[in-house]
Automatic annotation (TrEMBL):
<dbReference type="InterPro" id="IPR036013">
    <property type="entry name" value="Band_7/SPFH_dom_sf"/>
</dbReference>
<keyword id="KW-1133">Transmembrane helix</keyword>
<feature type="region of interest" description="Disordered">
    <location>
        <begin position="291"/>
        <end position="384"/>
    </location>
</feature>
<feature type="compositionally biased region" description="Low complexity">
    <location>
        <begin position="331"/>
        <end position="347"/>
    </location>
</feature>
<feature type="transmembrane region" description="Helical">
    <location>
        <begin position="7"/>
        <end position="28"/>
    </location>
</feature>
<comment type="similarity">
    <text>Belongs to the band 7/mec-2 family.</text>
</comment>
<feature type="compositionally biased region" description="Pro residues">
    <location>
        <begin position="371"/>
        <end position="384"/>
    </location>
</feature>
<dbReference type="InterPro" id="IPR050710">
    <property type="entry name" value="Band7/mec-2_domain"/>
</dbReference>
<dbReference type="InterPro" id="IPR018080">
    <property type="entry name" value="Band_7/stomatin-like_CS"/>
</dbReference>
<keyword id="KW-0812">Transmembrane</keyword>
<dbReference type="InterPro" id="IPR001107">
    <property type="entry name" value="Band_7"/>
</dbReference>
<dbReference type="InterPro" id="IPR001972">
    <property type="entry name" value="Stomatin_HflK_fam"/>
</dbReference>
<dbReference type="Pfam" id="PF01145">
    <property type="entry name" value="Band_7"/>
</dbReference>
<feature type="domain" description="Band 7">
    <location>
        <begin position="26"/>
        <end position="184"/>
    </location>
</feature>
<protein>
    <recommendedName>
        <fullName>Band 7 domain-containing protein</fullName>
    </recommendedName>
</protein>
<keyword id="KW-0472">Membrane</keyword>
<feature type="compositionally biased region" description="Low complexity">
    <location>
        <begin position="297"/>
        <end position="317"/>
    </location>
</feature>
Amino acid sequence: MESFGQVLLYLIIALVVIVGIVAVIRAVRIVPQSVALVVERLGRYSKTLDPGLHVLVPFVDRVRAGVDLREQVVSFPPQPVITSDNLVVEIDTVIYFQVTDAKSAVYEIANYITAIEQLTVTTLRNVIGSMDLEQTLTSRDQINGQLRGVLDEATGRWGIRVNRVELKSIEPPPSIQGAMEQQMRAERDRRAAILTAEGIKQSAILTAEGEKQSAILTAEGDAQSQILRAEGESRAIIQVFEAIHRGDPDPKLLAYQYLQMLPQLAKGDSNTTWVIPTEFTAALGSIAKGFGGTPGTPGIPDPSAGDGPSGSGPRPATSVLDKPLLQDPSEALAEAQRQAEAAVADATSAGTRSGEPFDPRTERGQMPGGSTPPPPAPPAPPVA
């Protein structure tokens, strides 16, 4: 009997110890950060335990639920919504909310996640139903604001605050997507065409401006070049004239230079007629007189010729040795000029008497009919 009593005592002691351990475990609660525990005492709400160490009454107080106080993110599956232009679009929403009152979240609503989801779907259909497809695609901020206002007002009594509502995606029907892509492609092609036209226009304007400036600069350069060339030629002529004037050349030098230029006049394969100026005869006469030419040479009197213009009447016999072979250069030049003027006057008077108009070519050594006129009879040389 004593052994049985001892065993029974040991069992009672062990049971008390176990009960004490369980009571201590149930009485002492450590609440982590951002978690709230709702405690009931004898089936009624007693208090909400904040983060930290708490002691409960064993077998009297019990923890009804633990509520996470952090902000939570819930993504709902796509929901079909009909727009005002009778198009069905799939809208996927994301909600950011936070429990602010653990007691209301436990006792005011059975499942606040499901309640928020259903409330979001119904509110979204009400908002999208008053918009067409284009407004739905371009008014996401407006939709988010309306959803957040309705959800925050409805969930306030549940101890929940809705921070943000985002439309993750809006998917129109495939046929509408194809039409939208075509419209977008056409709009981009139109903008590209406009930009290309603007670029061509600007390029043409700049090209025209460049050509204008180039033409202006070229014209100015040509004008300056012509002005400088004319000034250079003018200065060269003045310098040559001054050099000739200072050099005081005699008629022989001038006649020699005149003869040197005659071959230049005859150069060229296309020259079929060589026009000899009338001054050529006078120049030869001046040269012959200067160097003592023979009688019969143009510009040298022939002793056997008559006194008159037609050769009638003998001239008095005079010896060439009795006359000076050379004369003053200024007198020779004046004599040559007088001979040229006399030849031009004779040709003019002959044309006037014959009734034919005067042809300037006769002044160059040709008659109007194309024949070469005979050289004029040279006047008698001055007698010393």
